[in-house]
Amino acid sequence: MKILILGDVFGRPGRNILQKQLAQIINQNDIDFTIINGENASGGNGLTIKNAKELLSLPIDAITMGNHVWHQKELLDAIDDYPQIIRPLNYPDPCPGKGFQIFHHLNKRIGIINLSGQIFMPNLSCPFNLIKPLMNDIKNSADIIIIDFHAEATSEKIAFGYYMDGFATAVYGTHTHVQTADERLLPQGTAYITDIGMTGPLDGVIGVDKEIIIESMLTKRPKRFVTAKGNVQINGIILEIGETDNKVIAITRVYETYEVQS
Ligand SMILES: [Fe+2]
Ligand SMILES: [Fe+2]
Predict the structure, then answer these.
(1) What backbone torsions phi and psi does residue 235 show, to the nearest 5 degrees?
(2) CB neighbour class for 90 (10 Å; exposed up to 12, middle 13-18, buried from 19)
(3) How far apart are CA 83 and CA 231, in angstroms?
């Protein structure tokens, strides 16, 4: 089985490039299942229902989220109607939505977990201690376990990757919007990459108009963020998973750029 996973889809440029290119990427790479991170899909902040429907009308099977999950408040009321959308598991109870979902696909149970880190992130419960007592049940309920670890600090991400080694099929980072080049199989066979990058504007500052961010850096004053225009990128990974042992044979980075006339 081949699973395509794309990093944080940012605003209209991210959604538009998926409309144009996703089907082709899936066909060219014989992809069976597609996961995207959707926490920035609506104007860079959260996910509206309209945009969720738009993305799910594409060949996208699951959408993971992150710290921006509740920035479009309508998702709070609607998330339970969309089992394809997975929010970080470490939000306190009661919280709508789920942080772990199982998808039945090609006779496999694909378990997808979304977890937030703690370093330079919202004050949520510890992902290490949260997942520890759940690991047995998760292992018994899924053939393939995929974890989107949404975090800022490379140290926390690498430590979590090692902590999950041999338990998860793959652990990949999201949130920084910058792809790292450290994809590999860890000693016990778990596929790992610190960050898969972003799907959206190429010529901005992690998705936002660069002039706004430079001015904000110069003046030390907050400015209203506007999505960057121009060229775009699609960032992510492809996992090739063995049919019999459900282990990753290969983890390959996707880093495509496209010219857009603005
Ligand atoms: Fe993000
Ligand atoms: Fe984030």
Answers:
(1) -120, 145
(2) buried
(3) 32
The one catalytic residue among 68, 150, 175, 177: 68
Token reading at 42:
């609506």
Q: What is the CA(127)–ligand 2 centre distance, in A? A: 15
User: Which domains does the chain carry?
Assistant: 2-258 (3.60.21.10)
Ligand nearest to the CA of 9: 1
pLDDT single digits (tens) 70-104:
999 999 999 999 999 999 999 999 999 999 999 99
Centre of ligand 2 to C-alpha 15, Å, is 17
pLDDT digits (tens, 9 = 90+) for 146-184: 999 999 999 999 999 999 999 999 999 999 999 999 999
CA of 64 to the centre of ligand 2 (A): 11
Residue 135 to residue 101: CA distance in whole angstroms: 14
pTM: 0.98
Q: Closest by alpha carbon to 42, among 78, 89, 92, 94?
A: 78
Separation of 243 CA from ligand 2 center, angstroms?
33
Cα of 216 from ligand 2 centre, angstroms: 20
Active site residue 68: yes
Three-class SS of residue 51?
helix
Q: Please, which residues have CB within 8 angstroms of residue 80's CB and are 6 or more apart in sequence?
A: 96, 97
- CA-derived radius of gyration, the chain: 17
Residue count of the chain, please give it: 262
Given CA atoms 147, 123, 178, 66 in this order, what sign does their dihedral have? Answer: positive
Q: If we measure between CA atoms, which residue out of 50, 49, 51 comes closest to residue 9?
A: 51
Q: Please name which ligand lies nearest the alpha carbon of 198.
A: 1
Could you say which ligand is closest to the alpha carbon of residue 14?
Answer: 1
